[in-house]
Each structure stands twice: as C-alpha cells, then as structure tokens.
Amino acid sequence: MDLFGLLHLDELSHGLANLSMFPYFDIAHYIVSIMALREQPGALEVSRVSPLACWFSSMLFCFGGAVLSGIMLAEPVVAPLSNSTSILLASITWYLVFYCPMDLVYCSAALLPLRLVLSAMKEVTRTWKVLGGVIQAHGKFKDSLLVMIANGWAKGAGGGLISNFEQLVRGVWKPETNELLKMSYPTKITLIGAVLFALQQTHYLPLQTHHLMLIYTVFTVVNKSRMMLTGSSASPFAVIESAVYKTLFTGSSPYAALTDETKNRCIDHGATNGATSTAGTKEIGENGAAVKKTPVSPVKGQSGSLKAKEESENADKTDCKKKK
Amino acid sequence: MDLFGLLHLDELSHGLANLSMFPYFDIAHYIVSIMALREQPGALEVSRVSPLACWFSSMLFCFGGAVLSGIMLAEPVVAPLSNSTSILLASITWYLVFYCPMDLVYCSAALLPLRLVLSAMKEVTRTWKVLGGVIQAHGKFKDSLLVMIANGWAKGAGGGLISNFEQLVRGVWKPETNELLKMSYPTKITLIGAVLFALQQTHYLPLQTHHLMLIYTVFTVVNKSRMMLTGSSASPFAVIESAVYKTLFTGSSPYAALTDETKNRCIDHGATNGATSTAGTKEIGENGAAVKKTPVSPVKGQSGSLKAKEESENADKTDCKKKK
Amino acid sequence: MDLFGLLHLDELSHGLANLSMFPYFDIAHYIVSIMALREQPGALEVSRVSPLACWFSSMLFCFGGAVLSGIMLAEPVVAPLSNSTSILLASITWYLVFYCPMDLVYCSAALLPLRLVLSAMKEVTRTWKVLGGVIQAHGKFKDSLLVMIANGWAKGAGGGLISNFEQLVRGVWKPETNELLKMSYPTKITLIGAVLFALQQTHYLPLQTHHLMLIYTVFTVVNKSRMMLTGSSASPFAVIESAVYKTLFTGSSPYAALTDETKNRCIDHGATNGATSTAGTKEIGENGAAVKKTPVSPVKGQSGSLKAKEESENADKTDCKKKK
C-alpha cells in the first residue's frame, strides 16, 4: 500500500509483525489478567480458602481463549497445559500477585505508570491472538468467514466469554450477566479485530497482514491508554453502535417504548420482579435484619464482575495505598 | 415389504426419502424455532437489550442439535457456522421474526393455518435430522446401539436438551427444570424416532429406511397437527408410559406412597422447603411487599420455559390480536 | 527394586498388575458409586419423578471420569456408551439399587461388612483408572507432566470434578461448592495418585509401574477401610497440607488474619451476607414462617453433596434399619 510506503511505516509494521510475544508481552498479559482476577469481588478470599481453585481460575483468565477455541474446534482443551514454559510463567505470576510477602508485586504493578505499560503490552498480545485464531480457523474451515471471526474472537477474548464458568470455579454464579448480553470494551474491540482480520485473510479487505497488525495494535494500545489515563470507560464506538441499533433493531414499533426502559435497568425479566425484590429487602431490613436473597443482588449483577474487570484496568486501585 | 407394495406406498416413500430439506423445510424449521424462542418469557426484552445474545440464542434453537452432537462426537461445534447459506437463512428469519417493521412476519406466521403448515414442515425435518444423527454415529461407532440412539436424539432434539445453556445466553437460569427431568413432547417423539431408526439401521427392525421414514414422518406430522388443532398437550404415549412406569419403577414399596405425591409437585427437593417457601412469601407479602427469592419461583419452574415452548406451538398466540 | 525382592512382594505386585477389573471390581465400583448417588439429598425423589434423569446421573457417577477425560482430550464423550457390557452392568446395578422390590439390594450393600468390601474393591479400580489416564495422556502429549496429571486425575475422580453438572441433571444447582474449592478425600487421593504415576511414567520416580500400583492400591484400600471403620473423615495428609499451606499461601501479611476466619465459614463472599442471611431467616421464622431463600442454604452448601458423598461411604447408613 502506497500510504504505508510514503510514511515509512512499512519497516515499522514488518518489525512489529516479527516481534516475539514470548516472554515479555506474555508476562505482561499474565500480570494484567491475574490482577484483574484479584480485583474481582471475593477472589482474595478464594485465594486463601483454596489456592488450587484460585490457580485454576487464574489459568482460565490467562489461557481462556485457548480453552474456548479448543472446545469450538474440537481440539484438546488441556493443550495449554502442555506448554510447560507458559504455564510455569503464569503460575509464578499467579503466586506473586496473590501471595507475595508484603503484597509487593501487586502493589507495584498497580501503580498507574507500570500498569499503563503492562496494559499496553497486553493489548499488543491481543493482535497476535486474534490473528492466530483467524488463521487457525482459516486452515480448518476454508473461507468460512463466520468460523474465522468466531475463533479469532474466542482466542482474543476467551477469558471474558467463558467468565460464567470461570466464576463457577470460584463458587460464584451470576447467570444474569454475560459478555453476550452486555459486552465489555475488551470483548468489543476483539470482535472488531476478528472481523477485520477475517476480512483481510479472505482478501475482502485489501490490506497486507502486517499493515493491519500495525493499525489494529496502535488503535488498541492508544485507546486503552486513553481510557486508563482519563478514567473514562466510554466506548469509542458508542456513536456507531447507537446508530446501527436505532436503524436495525427498533423497527417493530409496538416495542419501541420498551427499548429505552429495558436499557436502563438490569435484565431482570419483569420490572415487578426487580421492584418488589428491592422493596421486600427493605421491608425485612426494617425488621432488623437484611435478607440477601441470592448470592448476587440485581444491582450487583449490573455492575458485575465483567464490568468490574474492565473498569479495574482503567483506574489505579487504592487498595495498596490504604495499607501504607 | 408387501404391505407397502400393496398400498402403492412404495413410490410415495421413495419420493419422501428423496425430498430435499433445503430450502423450504429448513426455513419452516427456522421460523417455528425462532418463534418458539420469541415466545419464551423475557426473550423480547433480550432482543432489545442485546441483539447479539438474541441472535446467538436463535442459532442455538435452530442448530442446537448439530452443536450438541458435535460435543458428543468431539467434532467442531462451530461447524454449523461454516454452512453460510443455512446461517444466512436462519439469520434473516431471526431478523424478520424479531425486528420486522409492524411485526408483520411474526403476526402472519402466528396465524393458525400458516403456523400449522410451518409446524408440520418442521416435523418433517425432524425425521431427516434423527436419521442423519443415527447414520453419523453408525459410521463412527459401528453397531453401538446406544451411541446411535444418543446421537440421533441429540441431532433431533438438541435445542431442547441444551435449553439450560441456551437460556444462560439470555441471562436466564432455571436449574430445577431440564428435558431429562420433565420431557416435553418433541423430545419424547425424537427419542422414540432415534430408537426406531437405530434399530432399523442395525437390522433389528425389519423395515427399509424409506418405509420407516414415511411411517415416522406421517406419525409426527399427524400427531403435531392434531395437538395444535385440539389444543391438547396430552402425549399419545401417556398410557404406555404410565404402564411402564408402574411396572418397572415402583417396585421398592417403602417409597410407593412418595411417588404420587412427588409427581404432583415440582421437583422441589424437600416438601418442607417448598411449603415454607410459599408460606414465607405470603407472610412477607402481607407486610406490604412480596419477596421474589430466586429468579424463578417454584411455580414458574414447573410451567417453565420448556413446557411453554411446547405449548406455544400448540396454540395460536393472542399477542398479535391484542395489538390490532 | 531390592526391597520388593527382599519382601517377596515382586510376585504379588505382578499378580495385582495383571488383575482384571472386569467384571467384579467394576461391579463393586458401580454399586458403591450409585449408592453414593442414592444418598444424595433429593436423589430418591428424582428416581421416582424421572427414571431417565436418575439413570443419566448414575452413568455420570460411574463413567464421569471417562466423560471428563473425553472433553479434555477432545475425544467423543459418548465413548463410554459404546461399551455395551459396562453400560449394561451399570444399568442393572442402577435399577437394583433404586428400584429393587423390598429395597433388598441397597439394604444388603449398605451393611457395614459388605460395604467395606465393596468400597475396598472400588478403591482398587481407582489405581487402574488413574494409571490409564496418565498413560493415555502420555501417548497424546509426550512428556507433558501437567497434562498427564490432569488426565489421570480426571479419569480417577471425574464423577466428583463434574459434580456441579451431574447435579444439574437432577435439577440441583449448588454453585457455591465444587471439588476445587473444597476437595473431598477421594479427589485428594486421586490427585496424589495422578502425580505419583505421572512422575513414575516420566521416570522422575525411580519405581516400576507394578510396584507403584501395589503401594498406591494398598495405601488407598487401607486408608479407606480405616476411615470407614473408625468413622473418621480426617485426611491422612492434614498435617502436610497445613504445613504447605502455612509456608506458601500466607505470605501476604495483611490477609493472614483473614485466613482462619475464612476457613471456618462457608465461602459466602462477604461475612455480612452470611450473617444477615441467617439472621434474616430467623427473623422471618419468628413471624411464623421460615423462608428458604435459595435451593441451597449456606449451611447446607457447606455440608453439601460432595461431603455427603464422602461421608456416606464412611458410615453404615441407618436408613434400612429404621424400616425394619
């Protein structure tokens, strides 16, 4: 492409494409992922009660994409375990993040400048994972765009997509929330990446692989850094999403009134349900004791783990500061 | 077989066996399946909040059999995605059923005569799916009757059997109900079909494939039409089931008294549980606010989604009429 | 090894290694497993309401290891169904344990001497399953220690590890408990066995296969018998576990205080939750009606199904005696 040649970006993109993820970028991915797990509500308690469940959860955060892709393509889901070096690195990271004396590792990595660098490095690994997934599916299902997108998405955002089952390992069950019902930013950006790389691989998108890798990587890194620095969780696609949504999915007029209402509250399956539930809790609370009905209240469900995960990456946590 | 020759049914059965499911019967299957999803409680709200979750749920309704069979036989579960034409047809159907302006498509298809024809056509596809599953398992596990039955059943009634996980996509979780605990009519008829075709393929049943296809198809279509026209959801096997049940599964006398009782109430795991739960709700209700304890009340669980799905196919929904 | 030759144990270990599990040991495994299922809360009711769900649950108890291993290695999960003889034996056992007239089979097998022998025989099958799993993984993933351990563990303790999903078949859902969060004795001993056999197969443990089989089998059988006779459920590894735990997983001082506390209560995700929940129930109870909030109360969750399963094998149930 001429533009790339003109801007002398060709060499840069070649250099990026030849970059090895192992070990530095992989380690950054493990650190950021396991820190996101640690910041889930209840995760620290699980790490004390059952280190094994905590380790397994961490591995699902780190290798969830490979596991999900394995299920989808009928390849051994234990395959990530066979890569001893990666597992060893991830396990050491897990141990240091959760059990390091004085909590040194977590507190250092949670400092904004370091977290910014680590998160940016993690974003770089996303490009490689999405592309790897797309190419793998391309090899198995010749020219099936949807399979390529699905596998690229699974590889890149696997940890989020299987989060219901990852939570189950830790004894948490939040059926009312999942990444398909309410997509987080990382899942969205990965889906877009999977679509772009699938189009590029099938030559519908007239770009070279390394050029697209450069564009996508720069976009994700810049966007992630911007979100972390401004503390904003606003999606850069909000306008497009809203336009597409309004054009395509509000055609059936009898339900148009419903739409805004449903968007404002948690998917609660019946407004009365949500309303009386809260009222009921309050009523009993006035009797002297609050009743927690399910492990997850509707409100907690809304600002649930996935969002927490996403947000946790945007803000410097104050946990460590308090301790000092 | 002489009887078939005598009744000149040989040609008819050959004609049926050579019938192509694509595209008309497939489309009927998609329309009826996606309408069944739309009639699930909460499905319309999900379609507004997250079109992607709604689309994924629809695909599980349409291709659930292929997905379940893929898991069982360790073949890629994304394989249905690789059939672009089917996915495209199912997606268009999904879009029209959920988002068509004025809700034209759903309201037309919900009219009894049209729904009757579509449901009958969907029943025809069942024969092909069950037979396909049996033959596929026959090729992989030579002469293993149970695997053939399991795979034929999975292919033909997959959407129902994985309904717990399909609901999870929409944020609904009803662990107290599944197709094994309380089989719906479509699941039952598919199981019978799978047994018959497995016996026929292993030559225990002295019939030719196309003859059995004719018999089974006629039976399912006639039975379905009868159920829709009379509005009855009575299983045609109720008498046999009851006899088998009484003969085989009530032998252990100490529990005989338990049996009738347990059949009458929801599987509630402890009578006291169910009783006090209802009492508790009422008690609090009198205090001014009803408490909805779990996303699904025991009563709702009983008349839950699977039954709703089954019933929804038997009766002409009044939704559209109200709007007029 | 000289010690084995010296003690004339070489022939004994060869004899053990050549022992066929089929049919006597397999039948003992089926009987003990299905009795454990029958002793789960609610299982008897399910057996009356839906014999099919009960049968499917029983098969998961008997062949759960093969199913889990199939999922992990991307091999057909229906494979156990293709072994007609095993399925037939397990099905007959299931029928006799649940539906035998006068409940003769269950009551006889529940007598301590017979149960002791059956449980000891079941422990013997564990050795074969773990070794089988380790060897199978060794063949597929050359020298990957972790995959070998994982597959050996899955094969030997599969029924426990997938218990959440086995319960789902019976309409029970207990997300707050799983074998990773709170390992039962059988799961622990299987994990240790998987580690030992994996080390032995990769020659890190300088023992011959049949010698390790003898040592491991004797250890599990003796330990199981001791636990059943003394009624103790104390793990023989409690001291080692405690030492390892204190050394490795309490490094991060700010949470040290948390540790003991969290171990004493159910993993409840918030002390307040657990506390107020109990208080709330009591409060309402005083109003005249107890409220059962979720299908499983936190207390029941703690002494939940997996522990019940384990304990049920240690004590002679008094069920049958009452009836006499």
Please describe what this structure looks like.
Three copies of one chain form a homotrimer. With 324 residues, the first copy, chain A, is mainly alpha-helical. Helix content of chain A is 71%, strand content 0%. Chain A has 19 helices and no strands. The longest helix of chain A has 29 residues, at 112-140. Chain A is globular, with a radius of gyration of 21 Å. Chains in contact: A-B, A-C, B-C. Chains A and B meet through helix 10, helix 15 and helix 16 of A and helix 4, helix 5, helix 6 and helix 7 of B.
**Count the helices of chain A. How many?**
19
The poorly predicted ranges of chain A are 252-319
Rounded average pLDDT of chain A: 81
SSE topology string of chain A = HHHHHHHHHHHHHHHHHHH
Total number of beta strands of chain A:
0
Shape descriptor of chain A: globular
* Distance N to C terminus of chain A: 54 Å
How much of the residues of chain A is beta strand, in percent? Answer: under 5%
Oligomer: homotrimer
Radius of gyration over C-alpha positions of chain A, nearest whole angstrom: 21 Å
Strand count, sense and closure of the main sheet of chain A? none
The most extensive interface, with participating residues per chain, is: A-B, 51 and 48 residues
Structural class of the helices, strands and pairings of chain A?
mainly alpha
As a percent range, the share of helical residues of chain A equals over 70%
